[in-house]
Amino acid sequence: MENNAGMSTSRNLKPLTKQAILFPVIIVIFCSLLLVHCSDKNTDAPSVNAVHPAVWTDPTRKGAMQYHGTYVETSGTDSCNTCHGSALQGTAEISGCSTVCHFGPGGETSPPGSDWPHGSSPHSGLNAREQVCNKCHTIMRQHNIGPPFCHDCHGQGVNHPLGQPWLDPKSPDYHGKSNIDCTACHDLAKDCNQCHFGSTGSNAPAGSNWVHGNNPQHQTYPADQTVCNKCHDVNRSYGNPPATCHDCHEIVANHPLGQLWLDSKNAQFHG
Question: Most buried residue among 47, 85, 178, 228 by CB atoms closer than 10 A?
Answer without folding.
Answer: 228
